[in-house]
Write a structure and sequence with these properties.
The complex is a heterodimer of chains A (about 475) and B (about 500). Chain A is an alpha/beta fold and about 475 residues long. Helix content of chain A is about 50%, strand content about 15%. Chain A folds into 2 domains: about 200 residues, P-loop containing nucleotide triphosphate hydrolases (Rossmann fold), CATH 3.40.50.300; about 180 residues, no CATH class. Chain B is α/β, with parallel strands linked by helices. In chain B, helix 9 packs antiparallel against helix 14 and helix 10 packs across helix 14. The chains are: A alpha/beta (about 475), B alpha/beta (about 500). Strand 2 of chain A pairs antiparallel with strand 3 of chain B, so a sheet runs across the interface.
Chain lengths: ~475, ~500
């Protein structure tokens, strides 16, 4: 703590009654899902520092502090010093000196130390519970510190006593904000930082820079997520699984084994991508429940599944037609239109029919010729045209859930999509654009960096729209 | 950036990618470099972390030997092919058409295919590439190198890079093949007296053949006219197999028939070797570019570059939090129902009106109501404890003379206490026979029990026989506490562990 006292960057101590969401607010602002949050008072026993560092340079620093335990006794001690208003901060410092090793005031010493070292005060109350006079001693002590302060109304429950709180807090704090740490609201986060910037003029540039950084940082996280999802889709579609077999022809068991390995590999790819996305958004400790990526013809390619995750047969038909027509239009252009759009028409028919019949096909199993006395089975690349949309839908849903989950939220997240989710990100235009890239991936060709970037761009746009 | 560098990176990145902070520090040391330069600098700095022999050492050696064997084989094959085509028995002249096919036709066609392969090198499944003899030769030769198999299996080249590797090697082999053909030609010319002629089943006149030869010789006809066959020479060297013997005109001009060799040598030099050299150079440039591109798509490289060039933003705590051990939820001293009346009811941090409403709701009667906590001073709280102590002592018939010690405190406490509602004023002073010494303490269930309250509770416990702590919900909740809030109080009471304190947990 002593080392922090001399540091020049803005510092803010999140203080208040025990169990009013101080740690939740810190976890939310610091994107840290390791902060211990519980309904038991006294979970936070020591002041913890959460610096926002950029290349090692601290822009600002948050402190999560223990709650007040004996506020009235501290206030009584301070009042007993009988000092004028100008000496009140000195009285608080004297309190810290006298009681530094006093276990009775351990929590108060912990929470007041960063404040008296220059930290601004973020005083947290629960706006879903009624105001009580017992808070007045705390607020009075904070006033005695002489540090710039701001009150945060955090509504933990459903009731709303904000008006009561605002009336009371207005007596002690110039700035009052409402902040819900459980809702991952980027704009709310930025608004809070802007409020904090007003606490002291000299903190403004640093906090403003932090705001700009957070905005850029969010774009970066979105970009990394889009890249991860794009890689998943490309790898999944292009994956080829091989199995060597003995004898002239493979047995059914060989085929089943190959199919099982193929599917397992795709599942692992999805799991790895999800872990990556969780790490990108600092949710490494996320506990989630999610249906496994199924490959059984009935489960995966049923109309119900398709309508929730991927495209229906009709949508697939239309997408195939659009893709085919676009390819045929190239031929028409080549002949200067003398083909009377025959190329487009043929392309549309071929594309549409191909998509229609390819709806339920996962990937055929091929027997490869002998290679130095060995024969092998091969499965992949993915020929099912609907599968990329199913995968993409799942990946976007997962990424959207993770990215919009506050770091203050604990407990298991249920990843259960409903039919409306697809409508939120997949329009006709996007579907046609995506299909062009899926076709490239299906061909087994390694997409060049530019193509891949373009595909990432589409996913980025979808994510941005969802968030 | 070479192929060996690409392989070094492929080996380094999975194990030694480092943290964002480390890579960013490296990026800041090399701020104005291109991505390829940054990656190369990173490779140079980390190369010593690889155990010897590195994959690149193994592969470069393997690549060298495959190239050498392929080149030697191609040279030998070219020399044999050339020597075979130029073999001269003395009975019939050597047909230059065969040789032109080998020295011009085949190279031009294969170079055309090579150019198509190059144009399509971005396709992972490039049929032309996989049909290339260089590709097959490598597959066969790799079987004879079991020692390196393990390393080679670890290498997963970018498909484009693999294509370019095959294309470049094929050009190298083709060049050595052509060189073999040229050497064979020169060897045969030096060591034998070869009579060249031309012959074809097609009805080609000497003039037409001259035109064809003129096109072929166009690149050198201006500065080496002696290497361009004249119309006379073409006419004189036309050979008709029918008849089975040389015609007299040919025999008459036998000395001139050997002049063809200059044309053939130049054709081989210009087309089979010269053009091939250009295509080979193009293939090498393509390979080099492909290596650079492949490096940037290598697994881990995009991440490394991103980490080098984006600031490390850290928001989380730098030191771990001490683990909080949750105590048991249950507090053993519990009651599920409240008594109908208590000697005193205290509402911690509650106003009197609220306490009355709560007592009405709970149907509890009392003689005394007090409201400690909240914004009361500690002295007022102490006064309340003293008053209650006083009352309890009075009930237990402590000699009156001892009451005086509490009088001062009592006067303070009186401000904080009001008569209870359930009894008449006559009942406010309990009779000596009334043995009840129970206090009901109402607490706001949603507020956590703090040490300020615990201190008061401990003081109060010294004055009474039993304190029933009753967590109360908000008015909107009908004063019924949520069970999770009661659990919080239960945990705290378990920690405090005062024998006289019971928890109301309906």
């Amino acid at each position: 703590m002593a080392a922090l006292i001399a540091s020049p960057h803005p510092r803010f101590a999140v203080v208040g009654h025990p169990n009013k969401g101080k740690s939740s607010i810190v976890a939310s602002l610091a994107f840290d899902d390791t902060v211990q949050i519980s309904d038991t008072p006294g979970t936070t026993t020591r002041t913890r520092s959460f610096p926002l560092t950029v290349d090692g340079a601290v822009l600002y620093e948050l402190f999560d502090t223990p709650g007040f335990q004996r506020a009235r006794q501290v206030l009584a001690w301070l009042k007993a010093q009988d000092v004028g208003a100008d000496k009140r901060p000195e009285a608080v410092r004297a309190f810290l000196r006298v009681h530094r090793d006093d276990p009775k005031f351990a929590d108060e010493v912990e929470l007041l130390t960063p404040i008296m070292a220059g930290a601004g005060i973020l005083y947290v109350v629960d706006g879903s519970k009624p105001y009580g006079e017992e808070y007045e001693a705390e607020m009075e002590i904070l006033r005695w510190t002489g540090q710039p302060s701001m009150a945060l109304i955090n509504r933990i429950g459903t009731e709303d006593y904000s008006a009561q709180w605002e009336a009371a807090l207005g007596q002690y704090f110039k700035l009052i904000r409402t902040y819900d740490p459980m809702a991952r609201d980027f704009d709310g986060h930025i608004a809070l930082l802007e409020g904090i910037a007003q606490l002291r003029q000299e903190w403004m540039p640093s906090v403003k820079r932090s705001i700009a950084l957070f905005e850029a940082y969010r774009q970066r996280l979105l970009g990394a997520t889009a890249q991860s999802i794009a890689r998943l889709v490309q790898r999944t579609i292009a994956h080829v699984e091989r199995l060597q077999f003995a004898g002239e022809a493979p047995t059914n068991m060989d085929k089943e084994k190959l199919a099982s390995r193929y599917q397992e590999h795709l599942r692992r790819l999805e799991q790895r991508e999800q872990r990556d996305v969780e790490a990108i958004w600092h949710h490494k400790h996320l506990d989630k429940e999610q249906a496994t990526l199924l490959f059984d013809g009935i489960d995966l390619f049923s109309r119900e599944s398709a309508s929730i995750f991927g495209l229906t047969r009709k949508e697939m038909f239309v997408t195939g037609m659009a893709g085919g027509a676009a390819a045929g239009a190239g031929i028409d252009l080549l002949f200067g239109g003398t083909t009377f759009l025959l190329g487009s028409a043929i392309g549309a028919v071929v594309g549409g029919v191909g998509a229609y019949w390819g709806f339920e096909e996962l990937s055929e199993i091929r027997i490869l010729g002998t290679t130095l006395g060995k024969r092998s089975l091969e499965m992949g690349p993915m020929t099912n045209r609907n599968f990329p949309y199913i995968l993409l839908g799942r990946a976007l849903y997962h990424a959207h859930t993770v990215a919009s989950r506050s770091h203050a939220v604990r407990g298991t997240v249920q990843l259960v999509m409903d039919e409306t989710f697809k409508e939120r990100w997949l329009g006709d235009e996007l579907r046609t654009e995506l299909e062009t890239y899926h076709k490239t991936f299906r061909s087994g060709e390694e997409p060049d960096a530019e193509t891949f970037k373009e595909y990432e761009g589409l996913i980025y746009r979808s994510l941005e729209m969802l968030l | 950036m070479t192929l060996a560098h690409y392989i070094d990176l492929a080996q380094l990145l999975p194990k030694h990618l480092g943290t964002h902070a480390q890579n960013r520090a490296f990026g800041l040391e090399n701020p104005d470099s291109t991505p390829t330069e940054q990656i190369e600098a990173w490779r140079t700095q980390h190369i010593d972390r690889l155990e010897l022999p590195r994959w690149s050492d193994v592969f470069v050696k393997y690549h060298y030997w495959i190239g050498l064997i392929g080149g030697v084989m191609a040279f030998v094959l070219g020399a044999i092919s050339g020597a075979t085509l130029l073999s001269y028995s003395g009975k019939a002249p050597v047909n230059v058409v065969y040789f032109l096919a080998l020295a011009v036709g085949v190279p031009v066609v294969t170079m055309g295919l090579a150019l198509i392969s190059m144009a399509r090198a971005s396709r992972a499944h490039n049929v032309l590439v996989h049909l290339s003899p260089a590709s097959w030769m490598e597959k066969i030769l790799s079987r004879f190198s079991p020692k390196n198999q393990e390393t080679l299996e670890n290498l997963h080249f970018n498909p484009r890079l693999s294509n370019w590797l095959v294309i470049e090697r094929a050009q190298m082999m083709a060049w050595w093949f052509a060189f073999g053909v040229l050497i064979a030609l020169l060897g045969v010319v030096v060591t034998q007296d070869v009579a060249f002629a031309w012959s074809t089943t097609l009805s080609v006149t000497p003039e037409q053949f001259h035109r064809l030869v003129g096109w072929i010789a166009a690149p050198w006809s201006a500065w080496l006219p002696s290497a361009v066959p004249s119309v006379d020479l073409i006419e004189q060297s036309q050979f008709f197999r029918l008849g089975g013997k040389l015609d007299n005109a040919m025999i008459h001009h036998a000395a001139q028939l050997g002049q063809w060799w200059k044309f053939l040598a130049m054709a081989t030099l210009v087309y089979a070797l010269g053009l091939r050299t250009l295509v080979w150079i193009a293939a090498r440039i393509g390979l080099r570019r492909s290596v650079k591109e492949a490096v940037l798509t290598l697994e881990g490289v995009p991440v490394l570059l991103e980490q080098m060039n984006t600031p490390v933003v850290e928001t989380t705590a730098q030191q771990p939090e001490p683990a909080f051990v949750q105590d048991s939820d249950s507090y053993e001293r519990r009651v599920t129902e409240l008594e109908p009346s208590y000697d005193a009811v205290l509402g911690w941090a509650m106003d009197r009106e609220t306490i009355r409403v709560i007592l009405d709701t709970l149907q509890v009667e009392t003689s005394l109501i007090a409201d400690p906590g909240g914004n009361r001073t500690l002295e007022e709280d102490a006064g309340i404890v003293a008053q209650i102590t006083n009352e309890m002592m009075r009930m237990t018939a402590i000699p009156r003379k001892m009451w005086g010690m509490f009088d001062e405190m009592r006067s303070e406490a009186m401000k904080a206490m009001i008569p209870g509602k359930g009894r008449s004023s006559a009942e406010e002073t309990p009779s000596q026979e009334d043995a009840s010494k129970d206090v009901l303490m109402l607490v706001k269930s949603w507020e956590p029990p703090m040490m300020d309250w615990v201190d008061f509770l401990e003081d109060l416990a010294g004055a009474v026989d039993r304190i029933t702590v009753a967590p109360i919900g908000t008015a909107e909740e009908g004063y019924r506490a949520a069970s999770r809030d009661v659990t919080v109080w239960s945990r705290k009471l378990r920690l405090v562990d005062l024998e006289k304190v019971v928890l109301w947990q309906p």
